[in-house]
Amino acid sequence: MPIHMRSQVRRIRFDQPRLERSARAILSDVGETSAELGILFVGDQRMRGLNCRYRGKDRTTDVLAFAMREACMPHALRQVQGRPVPLTPDILGDVVISVPTAWRQAVEAGRSLDEELACLLIHGILHLCGYDHELNEKEARRMYRRERMILRSIAQAPKRANRTHQGSTGSPSRAKLRDASYSTHRE
C-alpha cells in the first residue's frame, strides 16, 4: 500500500512517520490494503483556494478528499459487462489537510496536533471510501460511528509530544481522547 505524503507547511511540525503508520492502519481497517494514497499537508491560504475551486466555498476548511475511483475512462474506450472501468483502480485518491486549521481545532479540543491530524486523516480516507456525512443524517451517523471505531483502534499506539514553533504540547490520556467528541470538516 503505497502512501505518498508531502508537507508544504514549514512553521508547524508534526510526526509524519507516525501519521504514515496511522494511514496504513486506517487503510487496513477499511479493507484497502492494496490501495495507493496521497496525503498533502497545506496552509490555510492553499486550502482556501482548493475549497473555493472544488467546492465553491471561499473559506478554508480542515480536510478535503479527492477520490480517484470516481473517475472513469470514456464510455467508448473501456467497459466490462457494460460498465465503465475506473482509470486507476488501485489509487484510492488524495487527502489534503490544512495544518494551521488542524492546530486551532486541536487547541480548542484539548488534544495534540498529531491526534487532530489523525482524526482528519480518518475523515478524509472515509470520504475516499464513499462515506459522505453531507448526504443525510443517517449517513452522517454511519460515518461518525466508523470514525470513532477507527480512532479507537489507532489510539492504542503510544503517543509522543508534538514540537511546534510555539513550543510543545503533551498528548492527553487515552480516556480523554476516547471521550473527546470531535467534529471534522467544519465550515
Structure description:
This protein has 187 residues and is α/β, with parallel strands linked by helices. The chain has one domain (3-76, 85-173): Collagenase (Catalytic Domain) (3-Layer(aba) Sandwich). It contains six helices and eight strands. The strands form three sheets. The chain has a four-stranded mixed sheet with strand order 1-2-6-3. A two-stranded antiparallel ribbon has the order 4-5. A hairpin with a 2-residue loop joins strand 4 and strand 5. Residues 71-78 and 158-187 have low confidence and may be disordered.
Question: Could you give a short description of this structure?
Answer:
This protein is α/β, with parallel strands linked by helices and 187 residues long.
